[in-house]
């Protein structure tokens, strides 16, 4: 298996010009399901498995789970900013450096799984309440110098959810941990 496939098990995110109501609903369902999928997959994993990188040179599963929680907390906040401010400039963060902080390397994954569980409950509640005008609201990301619509953000985080879930799931498959 090549490194690119290990890094992008479901391919890279492909943005669209627009999203249908059906696509948006499907993307919200993917976001909604992620905490349970991770809890079911990782429920019996010991520290050895959690401290295994999902690919050569990649994060450990522990770092991956903490990253997803960090990322989705930021995404939830960014959505709320876009809904309450006119095209706000969001605050980027250094994902790689956050993943190297001591808590990301040592904390129990249960902490981030519970964060994901509850943040996703609030986030999905919010996302399901959005109308067409809300979904067209935007924020500006200074790192990418790009304007993001909320329908695109939802699609991106549905991809992000499955992308990182597949990192852990395929590691389990390769190591016969299922």
TrEMBL record:
Domain DinB-like residue range list: 35-167
Transmembrane spans: none
Keyword field: Cytoplasm, Hydrolase, Metal-binding, Zinc
Highest taxon, organism lineage: Bacteria
UniProt-listed NCBIfam families: PRK13291.1
Listed name of the protein: DinB-like domain-containing protein
């Amino acid at each position: 298996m090549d490194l690119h496939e290990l890094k992008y098990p479901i391919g890279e995110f492909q943005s669209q010009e627009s999203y249908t109501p059906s696509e948006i609903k499907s993307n919200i369902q993917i976001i909604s399901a992620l905490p349970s999928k991770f809890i079911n997959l990782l429920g019996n994993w010991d520290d050895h498995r959690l401290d295994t990188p999902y690919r050569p040179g990649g994060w450990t599963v522990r770092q991956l789970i903490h990253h997803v929680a960090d990322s989705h907390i930021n995404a939830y906040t960014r959505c709320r900013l876009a809904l309450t401010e006119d095209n706000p400039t969001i605050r980027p963060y250094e994902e790689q450096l956050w993943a190297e902080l001591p808590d990301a390397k040592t904390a129990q994954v249960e902490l981030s799984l519970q964060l994901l569980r509850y943040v996703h409950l609030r986030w999905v509640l919010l996302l399901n309440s959005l109308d067409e005008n809300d979904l067209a609201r935007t924020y500006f990301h200074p790192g990418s110098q790009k304007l993001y619509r909320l329908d695109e953000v939802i699609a991106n985080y549905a991809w992000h959810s499955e992308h990182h879930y597949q990192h852990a799931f395929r590691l389990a498959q390769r190591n016969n941990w299922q």
